[in-house]
Design goal:
The complex is a heterodimer of chains A (about 650) and B (about 1100). Chain A is about 40% helix and about 5% strand. Chain A is mainly alpha-helical. In chain A, a hairpin with a 5-residue loop joins strand 6 (about 475) and strand 7 (about 480-485). The longest helix of chain A is centred in the first third of the chain and has 26 residues, at about 135-160. Chain A is globular and about 85 Å long. The relative contact order of chain A is 0.12. With about 1100 residues, chain B is mainly beta. Helix content of chain B is about 10%, strand content about 45%. Chain B contains 14 helices and 51 strands. Chain B has a 22-stranded antiparallel beta barrel. A five-stranded antiparallel sheet of chain B has the order 1-4-3-6-7, with no helix packed on it. Chain B starts with 15 loop residues before the first strand and ends with a strand. The model of chain B is unreliable at about 1-60 (pLDDT under 50). Classes of the chains: A mainly alpha (about 650), B mainly beta (about 1100). The interface between A and B is large, with 79 and 68 residues.
Chain lengths: ~650, ~1100
């Protein structure tokens, strides 16, 4: 009888021993996050995932800076595009337009999600077996850099944020997941800490050696430049002693923004800029010069310079690029709206809807290198008059054709940045590389002409296209179809760093000196202009302007607006300078593109009234997150 | 009882000694069972083999005669009388008489007969012995099926409702339709009457989990095997031996992992010792919708649609000309000015369904068998066009066979083999019957005819000339129904071995058993259809009433059919159960019952959509019970289940679910004696314990402890390299690993009282409370955590409570007149206790906490706006709206109506009350019964997508059917709607519109309905022919009966059958008139 119990016990034991594995139905090789760190190939995949999460720059519904300051606009038929609504001040907390805080899409996605991926990457990469230490170190530095970039983006866009230093477990308690926004200085400190770690690790390469597969990844100069940029932002008025936000307080009752201006931040910024400039130069990064542009044909000096200046932005991986954002490159999506039809076709091959308003057009200097409203020789008052293209301007404006006076006698960057009715547009078409570049094609935009309205909604609302954004190698194959060449969005280019340096120097010194002028003049010289001092002294009705700090500040700001026009830099600059509230309550005007005759066409028409108030310096925290996390404090005014 | 006396009268009138044991000599009645035994492969032992002629050594013996009969007095020919301890015995003759030559005085006689309780009698020297034998009682009447075992009824402490199979007999081939109101503790309702899709929903004691994809319906066990609702639905009532539902923790704890939502356990019949019994039933039913939805006539439709356009936009163009309206109204030219009643075109009023089943059972002491087969044919009520060579009406044939065989291998060993198979063969319209109903509601009555008679040009068309309009994208239900058909076949096969061994040799009362089950489910479905050609009138001539047709889609239509494969499944499962049970009573007072069960389950899907679904579902469990009662007065029980599930991480894989129960049988106490005159039984009981649920989320998403990753997301590009074309690929995490996710557990309390009175009335009343913890819910994760995939966690808590009661009345007044009554009442309500939600401190009415799990939120509709002035001066609402649209209350007073103004409205969407009551009475051969059923505390909303006049509601499963439809105008709305001439702010329907009016499209109290109803669920009249008459035809039992279901209904809601609630315009619930014949021999 006892033996029977033995059998029963044995039987039970067998069942239970067997049962331990019985419930492990999942085979070991089901894809889990651990697989991402199995070998060097999947690790590279995950690193690419981190890069992919970066904010997309080459789309108006992704990059708030494209339309955010109405530096460019769409016509009224397309004013409901998210980016346009943003620029028209229609953002709101209930359904935030460009929501880098919490969107879940593939184009605009919460940057916190991207930061989380970087954190996961940094945790996982150390265990990868077949990567060398220097490779791991480089990847960690890249992930850290991406993390810093994303934090910085959030900080610029939302103000005080909730840094995601380390990943919270998915099973964290309700209280644990409810975090607080941190003071902007703490956010800056954290970003700088990350960047210092990146720089100190010295793990990033100075230049990308394996260009076929690695261009698009961060380099040492990029890290230096980002640090410089962050420090400039930290010193800029929006984040430095911004007393407008004295009642914007955190849970402890302290203001999120420091309330006293600290000038020494500019010194730190200038130092960082210097280091960045040095790092760039050591890596062969420099301003793109006319000699860098290879033309298959002999061109006039004017066209040569225009093409050079266009190439600065749109030539892939050129020597001026510190870091190009390739995850969403400038493809047909952004180029088509910037591209007018250059001959009569039978289909709407390009939309040409990206319209540059007068507020941007007016910024460009006269051919003398000073603002048109300051130029003693420039007839500013009669700029809306009609003038006929002459021999002197034949490389800029079709000879014998009528266009507005304000399209004449402008600096080369005017012609490289903008396309306009009867304005010359060299290249970009199968039949547009004539031996004499004065005979190249040009848009005709009066109503009914080939560049004007084709389909309802497909037309330029102001008469100016941002030519600069069209890659020189994108080409009409015939009258009706275009092959586009994509290029990485120039999110970091050397000219930007140079001007940041000039700005920081100017701000950190009591009066501008040769060092300040030198860096501004580098940019001007490349654009075919004389130096600041000389230009102002000779042509401006305010010849002493460059001599004062304030005057020089204005000049540097203007230089930035021109050099980076249509690149989405002004949006961020106008915020950090806190000039947006002064500058962006204005009329948005363009030519009367619905007119058939030149006399009617060249009449300024008001498209929109731009408004900007203090709340617009920062985007609203999405309302859903506000209810999901009652600890969050909404930005002022939303 | 099988009686054979008449058959062989006159053949064997002499009592005989058993000398020879050749079978068949005495009664050819033995042939069939003997044959069957041979068939099942048993050694064909003589049924009376234990009787041998032996001479025993006796001291004193006597000769005597005797007679053996049953309780009614009928003799039992062939019964054996044997002296205990010897092999000596005799067999009774055809009249039950026997004679013993020399029987020792004071010896014990063992009297046995197939199907009768063996009886031992002390022979004390009488000359004549009259022996009355009692039929073997159906053990099920004395015991109750509990988890993995049976328990004596009196010692059952847990909350278990047992329903007599006869109670569930309804004229339907779907068992689930019988539950509502008949089973205490079950909340049930049926929302569709479509053959094949008419399963009722049912929940034991309501729903207490709010996990979005959690399993909410009970565990269904058929012969101890976990099966699906479909399998339960297909079960034939005649095959059911017992039907029990287990509700509390003690009843379900042993099922651990799967018991939290209660258990429905059905056992099928087994063969009984006795002669072959054949039972046949044939039924023929006539079914028709309980209620037909009334819609406005075509002329009203046109006028209202014109008004709908004009009232919103005075500049809008009227859709129908006055000429068309007038001509349609006159009805002289039905081809040119059609006015189609789509309902009549499409549907018949009555359809006929048939069911037949046959069961054969019987057996001897060695083997018993129960073999059954049934077949049913359910038809839909679509009309069929003779010109089509295929029938697109619903035709669902169900076949089922079942064979249960019990074999006593030795005196202590029993082997049971159960096999069953069901086959469904279906043909029906593409999209199913309810799609047809929805399409009828979407069809325009005046733009075209269902089909046209061919004109000269198309006289030779080899197809039906279906009507349509415009570019042929209007809904023409007639064409949609006739264009093709769906064909599916489903099959379940089940084989079960059970091996029982008594282990009295180890210790008395111990036995062990092993059960192995394998089943397989397979299904396929195909659609075959052509693309109809559509026509409309091209030119017409009223003078000659002639027309020419134009073909609207010459390039799209086809005359030949095409083929589209549909679902294909093959699922298999394996189940093993090994148990040891111990039952013993010590010193007549201490009764002990112990059980230990080991279970193992493996379910696999052969055609799975993804890797995770292709992995098996597995459970392992060890469960046990220890029950003790003292003197049948004090009862105590401890149960547990210890279960593992493959879904969870190792640290959470196993769950332990204990429960305790106590009971007190007052009626067995001495002090109760005075009350014994009234109460034959009075028991108090209480249980408390846990049970679990591992099916807490979608099967696709079940390995929460693993992350789910797409290792090659091609949408995530970085475009590195000189040519911007290097993409190493990207990783996309769609679920983060969370090893903390584990069982959903329920803590159940149950208290109750069971009363039996001597007057025939008995009651069982129970109160229950349940607390459900660890409910899986989607977390509220602020974006700052950086987690985009939904994060789930066991963070929800809910509670449920209520009571259910059951009253039974049984009384036989005399030999001819009997009366039985039965009533049940179930009230189950639930409440959210904890739910991770956003911060609702400013708008507390948005919080789900404290509300029923089935609670809906919506706006409070005050009335319709009186004029545009009022619109202007009221808080802003939704979209464009004007006078005559619904005005909502601004609950938070912020000057606009927004999500924040939604408040809990109405009752839950599943009923909180289910009840039923009925009486049956019989006098001699006639029996009559009726049953009422009702439900209460349930709200539903008119689905505006389906009822808003002229709106295009897409009928397909997906959102877009790519067809233009216009909702018909319900008659009630035609009679009461807001119009500029009749500005009734309380009209049933707001201002008409030809488009969706966002403002009125919100969920609000305006369209809220009360689904409370009570209905006459069934009535049955039967006549059993007297045996004296039927015996001539060798028939034992012949009953003719007629029954009806869903005959009458009372409800505040009048538009359609209230039980269908929100599904009102689907395939209607059916009223069935049924004629049946039951034959037993």
């Amino acid at each position: 009888m006892k033996s029977i119990y033995k059998y029963i016990i044995c039987a039970c034991a067998v069942f239970f021993v067997g049962s331990c594995n019985y419930l492990d139905v999942v085979p070991d090789n089901v894809a889990t996050i651990e697989n991402a760190f199995a070998d060097r190939y999947s690790t590279e995949k995950y690193l690419a995932t981190c890069y992919w999460g970066m904010p997309k720059s080459a789309g108006w519904n992704e990059n708030p800076a494209i339309f955010g300051a109405l530096e460019m606009v769409f016509n009224r038929e397309k004013m409901t595009e998210k980016g346009m609504k943003m620029g028209l001040g229609q953002d709101n907390a209930t359904s935030a337009l460009i929501n880098y805080w919490g969107d879940t899409g593939n184009m605009v996605r919460s940057l916190y999600a991207g930061i989380r991926e970087c954190n996961t990457f940094m945790e996982g990469v150390t265990d990868v077996q077949d990567l060398n230490k220097y490779e791991k170190d480089r990847m960690i530095a890249e992930a850290k850099m991406i993390k810093a970039y994303m934090h910085f983006y959030l900080l610029s866009y939302y103000g005080p944020i909730c840094p995601l230093r380390e990943n919270t477990e998915v099973n964290e308690s309700t209280q644990g997941v409810r975090v607080y926004r941190e003071k902007v200085d703490d956010c800056f400190a954290y970003i700088l800490e990350l960047l210092d770690e990146v720089i100190e690790s010295n793990a990033l390469p100075a230049i990308i050696e394996n260009r076929t597969t690695e261009l698009g990844r961060f380099t040492r100069p990029a890290a230096y430049m980002l640090k410089a940029k962050v420090l400039v932002y930290w010193a800029s008025p929006l984040f430095n002693g911004n007393t407008d936000y004295n009642s914007f307080l955190n849970d402890a009752g302290e203001p999120f923004f420091n309330q006293s201006y600290d000038e020494t931040r500019w010194t730190a910024a200038a130092e960082a800029c210097k280091k960045a400039v040095d790092a760039c130069e050591a890596a062969g990064i420099r301003l793109y010069q006319q000699s860098d542009y290879i033309s298959p044909k002999v061109l006039s000096d004017q066209t040569m310079l225009v093409n050079t200046l266009r190439s600065v932005v749109s030539e892939r991986w050129n020597c001026e690029l510190v870091w190009g954002n390739s995850s969403y490159p400038v493809n047909s999506g952004l180029q088509s709206p910037c591209f007018p039809r250059l001959e009569q076709g039978t289909s709407s091959s390009t939309s040409g809807t990206m319209s540059v308003p007068f507020s941007t057009v007016d910024l460009f200097y006269s051919k003398n290198g000073v603002p048109i409203e300051e130029d003693k020789d420039y007839d500013y008052a009669r700029r809306f008059d009609i003038r006929t293209g002459d021999e002197e301007h034949k490389y800029y404006i079709q000879k014998g054709e009528q266009t507005a006076a304000m399209n004449f006698d402008r600096e080369p960057r005017f012609y490289s940045t903008l396309g306009f009715d009867r304005g010359k547009w060299y290249g970009n078409s199968y039949k547009n590389s004539p031996d004499d570049d004065a005979e190249c094609l040009y848009p005709k935009n009066r109503f009914g002409e080939y560049s004007s309205v084709f389909n309802p909604g497909d037309y330029n609302a102001t008469g100016y296209w941002p030519k600069k954004m069209v890659c020189i190698n994108s080409t009409f194959r015939d009258a009706n179809s275009v092959s586009y060449e994509d290029y990485p969005y120039p999110d970091m280019r050397f000219a930007d760093l140079v001007l940041l340096y000039a700005e920081a120097l100017n701000e950190s010194k009591s009066t501008p000196d040769a060092e300040v002028y030198r860096y501004v003049d580098m940019i001007r010289e490349r654009a075919g202009l004389k130096g600041v001092l000389e230009s102002w002294r000779t042509y401006s009705n305010q010849p002493d302007k460059p001599m004062t700090k304030a005057g020089m500040r204005e000049i540097i700001q203007r230089e930035r607006k021109i050099e980076f026009a249509c690149e989405g830099v002004y949006y961020w600059d106008s915020h950090r300078w806190k000039t947006a509230v002064k500058e962006q309550n204005r009329l948005i005007q363009g030519w009367n593109v619905n007119a058939k005759e030149a006399v009617d066409y060249y009449m300024p028409i008001t498209l929109y009234t731009q408004t900007f108030s203090y709340k617009n310096y920062f985007a609203p925290i999405p309302e859903k997150d506000m209810t999901n996390n009652p600890q969050l404090v909404q930005n002022p005014g939303w | 009882m099988i009686r054979l006396r008449k058959r062989c009268s006159g053949q064997c009138c002499q009592p005989q000694k058993i000398q020879s044991t050749r079978p068949g000599k005495y009664s050819y009645g033995w042939i069939l069972p003997a044959f069957l035994l041979t068939v099942v492969g048993l050694p064909c032992r003589d049924l009376r083999a234990e009787v041998f002629p032996v001479v025993a050594k006796v001291q004193q013996s006597s000769k005597f005669k005797g007679k053996i009969s049953d309780t009614v007095g009928d003799p039992l020919p062939g019964a054996t009388v044997q002296i205990k301890g010897s092999t000596k015995g005799v067999i009774a003759d055809m009249d039950g008489n026997f004679e013993f030559d020399d029987c020792p005085i004071n010896s014990t006689l063992v009297v046995s007969y197939i199907g009768m309780e063996t009886k031992e009698i002390k022979y004390t020297g009488q000359k004549f012995l009259n022996i009355v034998m009692e039929a073997k009682t159906d053990e099920l009447e004395e015991v109750t099926v509990v988890a993995f075992a049976k328990q004596k009824k009196e010692s059952v402490l847990s909350s278990i409702t047992t329903v007599k199979p006869a109670e569930l007999k309804v004229p339907s081939s779907n068992l689930t339709t019988a539950f509502a109101g008949r089973v205490a503790g079950l909340i049930s309702y049926q929302t569709s009457g479509e053959p094949g899709k008419d399963n009722a929903s049912f929940f034991i004691r309501g729903i207490t989990t709010f996990g979005a994809e959690a399993k909410k319906d009970p565990l269904i066990l058929i012969d101890g095997i976990e099966l699906s609702t479909e399998d339960l639905a297909r079960l034939n009532t005649d095959d059911i031996a017992s039907f029990t539902i287990m509700k509390d923790a003690t009843a379900t704890a042993l099922y651990g992992a799967r018991g939290a939502n209660g258990v429905i356990s059905v056992t099928t019949k087994e063969g009984k010792e006795g002669k072959v019994s054949v039972n046949a039933r044939v039924e023929n039913s006539f079914s028709s919708p309980t209620k037909r939805v009334k819609i406005a006539d075509p002329v009203t439709f046109m006028r209202m649609q014109n008004e709908a356009i004009k009232t919103r936009d005075p500049m809008g163009l009227a859709l129908y000309s006055e000429e068309k309206i007038t001509m349609t109204e006159r009805g002289l030219y039905p081809d040119i000015y059609p006015a189609t009643d789509w309902y009549d075109t499409m549907f018949k009023n009555t359809t006929i369904n048939q069911r037949a089943n046959l069961s054969i059972s019987g057996g001897g002491t060695v083997a018993r068998y129960y073999v059954a087969a049934n077949i049913s044919k359910d038809n839909g009520n679509m009309k069929v066009d003779k010109r089509n060579n295929f029938n697109s009406n619903i035709n669902l044939m169900k076949y089922a066979v079942r064979s249960n065989v019990n074999v006593n291998l030795t005196k202590t060993t029993e082997l049971i083999l159960r096999m069953s198979a069901t086959f469904d063969e279906y043909t029906g319209p593409i999209g199913g019957g309810s799609t047809m109903y929805k399409e009828v509601m979407q069809a325009n009555p005046v733009l075209f005819k269902p089909y046209y008679e061919p004109d000269e040009q198309y006289a030779y068309a080899n197809h039906i000339l279906f009507g349509n309009y415009g570019s042929a994208n209007y809904v023409n239900p007639y064409a949609l129904a006739l264009k093709g058909y769906n064909d599916y076949s489903k099959n379940t096969m089940l084989t079960q071995f059970e091996f029982k061994q008594k282990l009295d040799m180890v210790t008395e009362g111990l036995f062990a058993r092993v059960k192995i089950n394998m089943d397989r489910y397979s299904e396929y479905s195909v659609d075959r259809n052509y693309k109809p050609f559509f026509y409309n009138i091209g030119t017409s001539d009223l003078l000659t009433n002639s027309y020419t047709l134009i073909r609207l889609n010459p390039s799209e239509g086809t005359e030949y059919i095409d083929y589209n494969p549909g679902n294909r499944y093959i699922d298999t499962s394996f189940y093993l159960e090994a148990a040891a049970e111990y039952n013993r009573t010590f010193e007549d007072k201490h009764t002990v019952n112990a059980l230990l069960v080991y279970t193992m389950r493996n379910k696999k899907s052969g055609i799975a959509d993804d890797l995770q679904l292709s992995l098996p579902n597995r459970n392992i469990g060890l469960a046990g019970r220890l029950a003790y009662n003292y003197d049948s007065r004090y009862f105590a029980e401890f149960d547990f289940g210890y279960n593992g599930s493959e879904r969870f991480a190792k640290n959470n894989r196993w769950g332990f679910f204990p429960s305790v129960a106590v009971g007190w049988m007052l009626s067995n106490e001495k002090f109760f004696a005075p009350a014994k005159d009234i109460f034959s039984q009075f028991k108090l009981k209480a249980t408390y314990g846990m049970s679990g649920n591992d099916a807490i989320g979608d099967n696709k998403d079940r390995f929460y402890y693993l992350s789910q990753v797409n290792m090659n997301d091609s949408d995530r590009k970085v475009n590195w390299g000189t040519q911007l074309n290097y993409n190493p690929g990207a990783v996309n995490v769609s679920r983060y690993a969370n090893d903390q996710i584990g069982w959903e557990t329920s803590y159940k309390l149950n208290t109750g009282v069971e009363i039996n009175t001597v007057y025939g009335l008995s009651a069982n009343i129970e109160y229950f409370h349940e607390r459900r913890e660890n409910i899986l819910l989607e977390r509220i994760i602020p974006n700052t955590m950086g987690i985009i995939p939904k994060v789930k966690a066991n963070m929800g808590k809910a509670s449920g409570e209520g009571f259910d009661m059951e009253l039974n009345y049984e009384k036989s007044f005399n030999k001819d007149l009997w009366l039985t009554g039965r009533g049940t009442f179930t009230y189950a309500t639930s409440k959210v206790v904890e739910w991770e939600e956003p911060d609702y401190s400013a708008t507390p009415w948005l919080s789900k906490v404290g509300h029923s799990l089935g609670q809906e939120w919506g706006y409070i509709a005050e009335r319709l706006f009186i004029d545009d002035e009022e619109v202007k001066n009221s808080p802003t609402q939704f979209g464009d709206y004007m006078a005559g649209d619904i005005k909502y209350r601004d609950v938070n007073g912020d000057g606009k109506i927004s999500e924040l103004d939604k408040v809990p409205i109405g009752h839950p969407t599943t009923p909180e009350i289910n009840y039923g009551f009925g009486l049956s009475a019989g006098y001699k051969g006639v029996d009559v019964s009726f049953f009422f059923q009702g439900s209460g505390r349930q709200s539903f909303w008119l689905d505006q997508k389906k009822v808003a006049p002229f709106r295009d509601c897409d009928t397909g499963d997906n959102d877009d059917d790519k067809l233009t439809g216009q909702n018909s105008v319900l008659q009630v709305f035609a009679g009461s709607y807001w119009s500029e001439n009749n500005r009734n702010p309380y009209a049933l329907w707001p201002r008409l519109s030809n488009q969706v009016v966002e403002n009125n499209d919100q969920q609000s109290t305006w369209f809220m309905q009360d689904a409370t109803f009570i209905r006459l669920k069934s009535v049955e009249i039967g006549y059993t022919f007297p045996q004296t008459l039927t015996k001539k035809f060798k028939v034992n039992n012949l009953r003719l009966y007629m029954s009806g279901t869903n005959l009458l209904c009372w409800s505040r809601f009048k538009l359609w059958d209230p039980e269908m609630a929100g599904n009102g315009l689907g395939y209607p619930v059916q009223r069935v008139i049924n004629v049946g014949l039951n034959l037993g021999f």
